[in-house]
Amino acid sequence: MLKFLFTVIRRDVLLAARRRGDWLTAQFFFVMVVSMFPLGIGPEPGMLRTIGPGVVWVAALLASLLSLDRLFADDYRDGTLEQMLLSPSPIALLTLGKAIAHWIINGIPLLIIAPLLGIQFNLPAGALWMLVLSLAIGTPILSLLGSIGAALTLGLRGGGALVTLLIMPLYVPALIFGAGAVEGVLSGTGSEAHLSLLGAFLMMSLLLAPWVSAMALKVSVE
Amino acid sequence: MNLYHYASPSTFYPLAGKLIPWFAALAFILAIAGLYISFFVAPTDFQQGEGYRIIFIHVPTAWMSMFIYVVMAFWSAIGLAWNTRLSFVMARALAPTGAMFTFVALWTGAFWGKPMWGAWWVWDARLTSELILLFLYVGVMALQAAIDDPRRADRAGALLNLVGVINVPIIYFSVKWWNTLHQGSSVSLTRAPSMAQTMLWGMLIMALAAWMYTIAVSLVRARTLVLERERQTEWVRAQLEGQP
Fold this sequence. Notes:
The complex is a heterodimer.
Chain A: H1 2-18, H2 20-41, H3 45-66, H4 70-77, H5 80-86, H6 91-120, H7 125-152, H8 159-167, H9 172-187, H10 192-221
Helix pairs in contact in A: 1-6, 2-3, 2-6, 3-6, 3-7, 3-9, 6-7, 6-10, 7-8, 7-9, 7-10, 9-10
Chain B: H1 3-7, H2 9-41, H3 55-82, H4 85-117, H5 125-146, H6 150-178, H7 197-229, H8 234-242
Helix pairs in contact in B: 2-7, 3-4, 3-6, 3-7, 4-5, 4-6, 4-7, 5-6
């Protein structure tokens, strides 16, 4: 079982490593979206510090959505996905592996880029650490919930925009608790409560999302 | 009583046809009575003046917007568990009405907020979660509209409904802890309501009217969906030939 999971993860990461162009698009998208905000709002440092955590978090949501429609689509197009579904291993493990791979490919780079963007937004060191920590707990949620949307919209016209419509409302708690944790450091009210809730949300998504997206895959492929 | 008998589209279609006028008439009468009570009988609120009367529309629509989502999730779960076609039809027929009530609740809330809070919109927990509820409705309808195969559309929409219904409480509490301004509920099952008796009656009658309206409209929509999906069957042909 674990071997199957690792194989799925390894395969997806390897495929992404071989096609660096696709992979980098989402990362640069993240950087650019965040950089647009100071241009639109004005470079006043106090204002930037207030909006910084939220902007970085919203950009992380968008970047993760951008890469989601590829999650199953490539395998679906060349028929690999059907073969995978026929394998004796549970489909929930396949979707879990895909979500983890999506997080490794798209989530971890965000953790590395985010502090740099935070510095641009004039965030103090403590808040930068909290930003990385909250993204580290939060981005797996984005990949897990996103896998449901990707499975539901598999092979549909305009799948990318549709995923956004379906999944964005479900991301709300992650956004609120994630940005709230950084906000807590900035305002000095502490961020343990936000982090705990974010962690709880992660546990629940980890438990339910692979299973739901496995059902969604079965609906979409049959 | 055999429930499977009523779950068959060929029994459902004529039965719904007979029930619709009754529910529609009830909705109409209750709405007239409710509006009369709300505008002429209910006393003026001593704090909020005449403007408070918007709650006679606002509260029932807000109740219905949440309730319909739960009913949709219920039908979705039944449909996924027992593979009954009619449950999916019901879930699908309810979605536009739910979205409409959500929109009306937001809109009337804005009308109420302007004189009371001095703002059309504030980022308060209830307003925000109601807005996200509207997004969830839109998401389900967009997904179902994008899928051509009705079987897949039903199941995909049902799954999304169930995911949504698990998430709604989480979203609600997350935005509640995030920011709050909306007044607490004045009606509760466990204690005496903190409002005049006639006001309460007006609101309850309006809620019943909204309920009856929902049943009537969703039955009409479900009938159309059934007709569309069963167009190849004998009974639909017989049904349609019977009518001029």
